[in-house]
Model the fold of this input.
Amino acid sequence: MSQIGTILDELYAVISDRRSNPREGSYTNYLFDKGVDKICKKIGEESAEVIIAAKNRSRDEVTYEVADLLYHVSVLLVEQEVTLDDIYQELKKRR
Done:
């Protein structure tokens, strides 16, 4: 069984904490300060980088870029007040 849920829960908790307790110099807080347009722009950029990595057939690049994408999507989820359990329930309905 994959361990991805554990780290995504931890990541979500850290991002939520940054939103509640901003830290000077935090990239996450920078994204929150810039707002949803900046967060969505980063998701678009990271998505494109995933595509390029996949087209390059580079497992390491795909791994790195998907991690970046998951981070930025997690920031968006916190910004939109969507929980990982909300996503879980949606995926479960589709199964």
Summary: The chain has one domain: 4-94. The helical segments are 4-20, 27-34, 36-55, 59-80, 84-94. The chain has five helices and no strands. Residues 59-80 form the longest helix (22 residues).
